[in-house]
What we know:
Rossmann fold, alpha/beta, five-stranded antiparallel sheet, 13 strands
Amino acid sequence: MLxxxxxxxxxxLVLVVEDEESVRMTLRYNLASRGYVVLEADAGPxxxxxxxxxxxxxxxxxxxxxxxxxxxxxRRIRAESDVPILMLTARTAExxxxxxxxxxxxxxxxxxxxxxEFLARVEALLRRSxxxxxxxxxxxxxxxxxxxxDSDARRVMVGSSExxxxxxxxxxxxxxxxxxxxVHSRDSLLRAVWGPSFHGDSxxxxxxxxxxxxxxxxxxxxxxxxxxxxxxxxxVDLAPGSPLQR
Length: 246
């Protein structure tokens, strides 16, 4: 395990998980020149350990790693944290990009890449993660039938059952549920939930919509559904007799 940083004071802490030493050194030099504190790992297990133990502000993650694949590292980090993840890979197929986003990455760059573009994407992800996501004005609790979404407590309840969600999943649900019947484009959802500086792919919205649907599959009588409006975006449709209460 390689550790090239100290506690982030005053710089933001960036974890670079990359097994190619030349790439890792280039990223470290350029990140440090911008004032970031850099942690390094050259294998999947040590990268996951640093992500869990040091709580970085951003993770730069290669896909092809020894010990534990970058895909698995991404999946495990995302299950525990909402830290921004920028994925790096030599794979150029669109299916690989979709796979990375599907696992929870926020952005994706293919090798070789320009250092200036890399730094711009890092800065955009960090700016977005610092911005509180926009919520529906004047509403802190939304109720539809047995479903309660409490933005102060950050809890989603279906009857007596709590539905666990990441911060971003929660904000996306709150935003959609607060405007039933309204169609939101992917781009508008990216701006509202991920922030205007987010440079990632709009497919990440589709991934999070799928995750929301999966989390509600255990409740067959759910009083709303998230509808795909093909070619446009998504909307929430309420079941008859289940009005939204604020």
